[in-house]
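Re: the 311-residue chain
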Amino acid sequence: MRILIVGAGATGGYFGGRLLQHGRDVTFLVRAKRARQLAEHGLAIRSVTGDVDLPAPPTVLANELADPFDLIVLSCKAYALDQVMDDVAPAVGPRTTILPVLNGMRQLDRLDGKFGAAHVLGGQCVISATLDDDGVVRHLNRMHSITFGERDGSRSARMQQITRELSGAGFDARPSDAIVQEMWDKWFFLASLAGITCLMRGSIGEIAATPHGPAAALALLEECRVTAAASGYAPGERVLERARALLTEPGSNLEASMLRDLRQGHPIEADHVVGDMLARATRLQLPTTMLGIVDAHLKVHEARRLAGTLP
């Protein structure tokens, strides 16, 4: 199976690197600067689960794509999706499967509109990783999973083939017959985590130590839960209880990757993670007090970033 990994940053570099390490036919779609860096220094992964050094991994630039791939894994940031769709179009053939592991849900509508729903699986990943200044992928804990599935829950022939290809490659690969529900379960929690930690500019433990912090976190979570439920994807009680516990845990160092991006002055996925949740809640005429506050806060930050006026 020919696999195209879009991007060789923290997420794409990690999962693509593991696949390449275990003998899979992987090519990375990258920009010219990253291609030069990988050609000169190779792809390096530093992880408690095992380090990897891959000299000169296969790369391709967007203008060099010509032949279709069997599987395209989209690991880009949500704000780059429109450009990425244009970039990968020459690599999408009649039998190509696209596996997006972006946060949120809006990517499914965008990809369906561009390539047709028959090409697009549901998917998500769980990993905490970063790309350092030397281009090394640094895996920050032991979590490294990709969950994927047909959106209708079927166990298709292509799902069986993709499962075989992703399994046994140094990370957790899990097929799901309820992938859309799982994507919503992740999203309603992530929107709450990103929203509250960015709003408060602190970790969950720091927020939990304040008199009103836990209540604010739970109020935001409840708005996201109600939106998921009204959309037909109510989280189960076990998922909900775990989310409540994680968002109010004393002493927790947990914070969203969006907060790290925000602190570093990088673009953030605010519209995709928080803004889309707010838009869906608004269309459904649901309560949006906390979502509205968080969205306004992130929009002010982004306006300042673009204007170059961040403190």
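The two ends are 48 Å apart (CA to CA).
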